[in-house]
Amino acid sequence: MKHFAFLPALAILAACATPQQQCINTASNEVRAITSAISTSKGNISRGYAIHRQTQSYQVPSVCYDNDDKPYRCFDFDTRVVETPVSINVAEERRKLASLQKRLPAATRKMNAGVASCRVQFPE
Predict the structure, then answer these.
(1) pLDDT digits (tens, 9 = 90+) for 16-71
(2) DSSP codes, 53-103
(3) The domain containing residue 92 runs over which residues?
(4) In Å, how far are 1, 8, 25, 100, 103 from 33, measured between CA atoms?
(5) What 3-state DSSP class applies to 18?
(6) Does the global pTM surpass 0.85?
(7) Same domain membership, residue 124 and residue 94
(8) 51, 85 in Cβ contact below 8 A?
(9) Does one domain contain both 44 and 94?
(10) Taking the CA of residue 20 as centre, how many other CA atoms within 13 Å lie in the half-sphere pointing to its CB?
(11) DSSP-derived secondary structure letter, 49
(12) In angstroms, rounded to a whole number, what is the distance separating the alpha carbons of residues 52 and 3?
């Protein structure tokens, strides 16, 4: 659960963003997604395999307290991310990377137009 502890704070910060910042963030989503996918694909190609990440919970010994504040042994849950190598078809991964790289310029132009529109629609 530690990894998700920041989510409420992130939601509060997002709520504090100005309308212009929220609009720009939305306009930038596609470019961020493509850029992230390009980075992942390049890493997969350089390693020769992908990495599958899975969050697993596990029990850890802890101390709990009863209604009279008396301590007793109990278990709490924690989480960890387990990374597992996954075989890939490197040629297919290269095709995927090339496709992503082709999409990026158009997505960037669309983002730039969206950002300009956000600045007109929500001047600060």
Answers:
(1) 889 999 999 999 999 999 999 999 999 999 999 999 999 999 999 999 999 999 99
(2) EEEEEEEEEEEEE-TT--EEEEEEEEEEEEEEEEE--HHHHHHHHHHHHHH
(3) 18-48+88-124
(4) 25, 22, 12, 10, 11
(5) coil
(6) no
(7) yes
(8) yes
(9) yes
(10) 9
(11) E
(12) 17
